[in-house]
């Protein structure tokens, strides 16, 4: 099956993500730029990974906070998306991140987990955590998403 053959409006959020991420000609997403890998897509829970690299550096030489912010926004938003019915959209309304430790740009694997807290009619909340390859907390976040019904 190809992207052109799928009617995404008929798929639940979870079905859409699982289908799109496994197509050989899948639609591009922000994860392509950062090299994100999809580890798990479950109802209300999503896990993505990436490896740091030199072009992720901030002026101090460690991984820029925007990398973790993008990773967290992605897993939390997708966690919300997995709970939505077919044809329902969402977007990030608010994002709050706490950075705990610096991450080198030398190929460190980061694993981000996003989990829904509440999914209502017009808003949803989720939390996310990023850990490094030693299991240490790098950053954690919460989000509020607006749901378009």
Automatic annotation (TrEMBL):
Gene3D superfamilies assigned to the protein according to its UniProt record, in alphabetical order: Hotdog Thioesterase
Domain of life, source organism: Bacteria
UniProtKB keywords: Hydrolase
GO terms for MF: 1,4-dihydroxy-2-naphthoyl-CoA thioesterase activity
InterPro entries assigned: HotDog_dom_sf, PAAI_dom, Thioestr_dom
Domain Thioesterase, residue spans: 61-139
Any one GO CC term of the record: cytosol
Matches recorded under Pfam families: 4HBT
Protein name: PaaI family thioesterase
Species annotation: Nocardia uniformis
């Amino acid at each position: 099956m190809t992207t052109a053959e799928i009617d995404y409006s008929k798929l639940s959020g979870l079905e859409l993500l699982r289908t799109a991420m496994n197509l050989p000609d899948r639609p591009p997403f922000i994860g392509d730029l950062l090299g994100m890998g999809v580890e798990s897509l479950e109802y209300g829970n999503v896990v993505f990974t990436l490896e740091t690299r030199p072009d992720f550096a901030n002026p101090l030489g460690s991984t820029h906070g925007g990398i973790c912010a993008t990773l967290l926004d992605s897993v939390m938003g997708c966690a919300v998306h997995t709970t939505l019915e077919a044809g329902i959209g969402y977007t990030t309304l608010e994002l709050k991140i706490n950075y705990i430790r610096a991450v080198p740009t030398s190929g460190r694997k980061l694993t981000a987990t996003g989990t829904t807290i509440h999914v209502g009619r017009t808003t949803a909340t989720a939390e996310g955590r990023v850990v490094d390859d030693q299991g240490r907390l790098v950053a954690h976040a919460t989000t509020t998403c607006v749901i378009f019904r």
